[in-house]
Amino acid sequence: xxxxxxxxxxxxxxxxxxxxxxxxxxxxxxxxxxxxxxxxxxxxxxxxxxxxxxxxxxxxxxxxxxxxxxxxxxxxxxxxxxxxxxxxxxxxxxxxxxxxxxxxxxxxxxxxxxxxxxxxxxxxxxxxxxxxxxxxxxxxxxxxxxxxxxxxxxxxxxxxxxxxxxxxxxxxxxxxxxxxxxxxxxxxxxxxxxxxxxxxxxxxxxxxxxxxxxxxxxxxxxxxxxxxxxxxxxxxxxxxxxxxxxxxxxxxxxxxxxxxxxxxxxxxxxxxxxxxxxxxxxxxxxxxxxxxxxxxxxxxxxxxxxxxxxxxxxxxxxxxxxxxxxxxxxxxxxxxxxxxxxxxxxxxxxxxxxxxxxxxxxxxxxxxxxxxxxxxxxxxxxxxxxxxxxxx
Length: 392
Ligand code: GDD
Ligand code: MN
Description:
- The chain is of the alpha/beta class.
- Helix content is 48%, strand content 9%.
- It is built from twelve helices and seven strands.
- It has a seven-stranded mixed β-sheet.
- Strand 2, helix 2 (74-84) and strand 3 form a beta-alpha-beta unit.
- Guanosine-5'-diphosphate-alpha-D-mannose binds next to strand 1, strand 2 and helix 3.
């Protein structure tokens, strides 16, 4: 297919006479399209076909799928396509989850001077790709945003509730992003490599709002342009974003505002810890007052329930990107209970030691709680949700 925008769109590489077919370009890609995937096997051939027909053979492009070891064999499907077309590439990550980190690692895997990030599910409008590249090539912009909120763009057939939630989230985002980007929640955008490289060391790398992270982390304001598109309906597969991503979103905002003072993950861990105290007292009251069990037994059951509660919530929220499942979940839970039991003993021991050393009783207790929590946080992040690449 001819390049849709004529000569302006022709890549300098494609004109080189080193190559008998423009498809087999000699150099690295000029444009890399980075697509994070989780359970998108049915969409892979469709999105590659769309990109092929839009970008054609006159441009030196590639597409990089970054798949988090999807059970539906997404990476296998992509690898199969890659065997027949070297422009298709695949990065498979094991034991990890997360849209933002997938995007970052996809960009790091390529040398292309221009990168466009988009979803695999055909909800983003591939016909915008040439226009986005042309805007990036002008060198006037660091980022080109596919936007639902500028004239000509739209939300498509989103339900009212999700539209409102998205608008609200966009408004809250202005707390950390000073640039007047209308659709900073967009997962469809292009970025110049030099701009990305400058922001990279400062990224929070949390959650799924990588564009927001880029804008909020950039040392100097990113020059941007928004181009309109209408969000399409998903046909194959399911959305991966559930209501729990809201928590990750709030953590990202917190990290951008206060992360230099206190780690967002520790705050998440502590908030959940406080909810665990409520669970502890509820179970204790039920066992002791309602079912008239011995105090020691009631305490033990309450403590174990609260620990299990904390473990489950931390696995869903604080460590969503490393969430455990299967046997790993059981192992992680056992380690968590061990760590927290030691933390409880240390908490009481330290409080007692301070109290005997003539400190105020409340201050002694508070010091015990703080030290116990830090212990629980550090140890459980190292041993329950450990980050070794070898873990599968
Ligand atoms: N590697 C990886 N890891 N990919 C993921 C993960 C993950 O944990 N979670 C989701 N993805 C991939 C999906 O397979 C899809 O290609 C893309 O990321 C977007 O996920 P969807 O589940 O389709 O998200 P959505 O349609 O609800 O949300 C979209 O709209 C938002 C607009 O407000 C996404 O484009 C968001 O990025 C966008 O912000
Ligand atoms: Mn989607």
